[in-house]
Design brief:
single chain; 459 residues; alpha/beta; Aminopeptidase; Aminopeptidase i, Domain 2; 2 domains; 11 helices; 28% helix; binds manganese (II) ion
């Protein structure tokens, strides 16, 4: 009977029961690199800039249209500094398809409005419009830092970063003291803090004159000194407030990583590390860091943009290959995080199918909601391919599903890749507290996601 069980049952094991001490060492090494990347990549622009720096160190060169491409060549193409595509040209023709891994580097945050600055009761504030799916109550009474760019009328773009480096000031949205919160506490969690209530406090000392808005004027004079900007320049600014928490190890055993932006920079980094490790692959390997996933993959830098098709069409044209023929033979890992089962909230999960911390890379056949609506739903054959690939390459992985049926749902870039006629499946790191200002992942799962992407690239 024991043999029957071993032969017929599918049983998963904790990843730490499956790896050698040597591989445990590699997990730690990888996690340390990832934590450094995450700490300095607080916006999509910063993630792209950091990725380009590392890519150039690894021999990647900027792609120019018409450039002669040969196998083994490493190129990258920045899309407006907010999204990035990298490729290592394969030995085989693109007529045999490419191996694509796509993650996103935008994360939920608080964008400043275009007229953000005002004074109320001798305090200065920025008004915000939140970006992506957030629980608003999580964003008050935590330290915030400010990142972004201001495009001036002169054509010059000024970069702004305040609060990341030690010694710099930070910002905060105030919350109501419990003593006076009797009415607030009766509201639902969705209503207790409103979108228009997410106003960031930025100053309190008045300018030395007799007119009104003296604190606002004093803040503007500081901004003018530091960045040469005036109030009108906010109109053409992209500034956002993000949590000012340092990335840190979590737990006595240091096995987890807490930080802002694991969704989806943990997968973006896995892809980067993987494509940096690829040498002279059989098929052309492509790594995408996309923008705008959190708001539907729209726009010029989102995954629905023609920028990706233009890049791929250029690569295909250099080999005389039709783009559509390349796509139909290609394979894409939509590298995005999944929700990890949380013992604090078991009711929303279906334990047999939710991914678990330390059980490896999470493979999500489908996302969507209300009867798989809005998902590309990978085919059985694609999942079969993944099983074989990961078994052959020692990738520890698990199936993932976004909670109980009809509990909620979500989406990724997968459907936009699949709509291009590319076989696509979601795969990534299980996350606790997804979309919170401080998310948690396991080092082990981050490393296995890197290993999974690398296995696909090297197949
Ligand atoms: Mn995501
Ligand atoms: Mn997300």
């Amino acid at each position: 009977m024991e043999d029957m069980r071993a032969k017929l049952f599918y049983e998963q094991k904790n990843g730490y029961d499956l790896i050698s001490p040597q591989e445990h060492g590699q997990v730690e090494e990888y996690a340390a690199d990832y934590m450094r990347f995450l700490d300095t990549s607080r916006t999509e622009r910063e993630a792209v800039a950091n990725a380009i720096d590392e890519a150039e160190e690894c021999g990647f060169v900027p792609y120019e249209p018409g450039m002669e491409l040969h196998s083994g060549m490493k190129i990258y193409c920045s899309n407006r500094g907010k999204a990035l595509m990298l490729a290592v040209i394969g030995r085989e023709s693109l007529a045999n398809g490419a191996v694509i891994a796509g993650a996103h580097v935008d994360c939920p945050r608080l964008d400043l409005k275009q007229n953000p600055l005002y004074e109320s009761d001798e305090l200065a504030f920025f008004k915000t419009h939140y970006y992506g799916g957030i629980k608003k109550y999580q964003w008050v009474a935590i330290p915030l830092e400010l990142h972004g760019v201001v495009a001036l009328k002169s054509g010059e773009t000024v970069e702004v970063t305040v609060g990341r480096r030690a010694g710099e000031p930070r910002f905060v949205i105030t919350d109501l003291l419990p003593h006076l919160a009797a009415d607030q506490m009766k509201k639902t969690m969705a209503e207790g803090i409103t979108g228009e209530g997410l106003n960031i406090i930025i100053g309190s000392v008045p300018y030395a004159d007799e007119e009104k808005d003296r604190v606002k004027l004093a803040v503007l004079s500081i901004l003018n000194d530091c960045y040469g900007i005036t109030e009108e320049d906010f109109l053409s600014a992209e500034l956002c407030a993000v949590p000012a928490f340092d990335v840190s190890e979590i737990g006595f055993d240091r096995s987890l990583i807490g930080g802002y932006g694991h969704d989806d920079r943990s997968c973006a980094y896995a892809e980067l590390k993987a494509i940096f490790s690829v040498e002279n692959p059989r098929r052309t390997c492509v790594c995408i860091l996309a923008d705008k996933e959190e708001i539907g993959s729209e726009g010029v830098t989102g995954m629905q943009s023609a920028a990706f098709d233009t890049f791929m069409e250029d690569l295909c044209a250099s080999q005389g290959v039709d783009l559509r023929r390349c796509y139909e033979k290609s394979f894409c890992l939509s590298a995005d995080v999944c929700n990890a089962f949380d013992p604090n909230f078991p009711d929303v999960s279906e334990k047999r199918n939710d991914s678990k911390i330390n059980y490896g890379m999470g493979i999500c056949k489908f996302t969507g909601a209300r009867g798989k609506y809005d998902t590309s739903d990978a085919s059985a054959e694609v999942v079969g391919y993944i099983r074989k690939l990961f078994a052959e390459n020692g990738v520890i992985w698990q199936m993932a599903e976004l909670g109980k049926v009809d509990q909620g749902g979500g989406g990724t870039i997968a459907k936009f890749m699949a709509n291009r006629n590319i076989d696509t499946i979601d795969a990534g790191v299980p996350v606790l507290s997804m979309h919170a200002p401080f998310e948690v992942v396991a080092k082990f799962d981050c490393y296995m996601t890197f290993k999974g992407v690398l296995a696909a690239y090297n197949d």
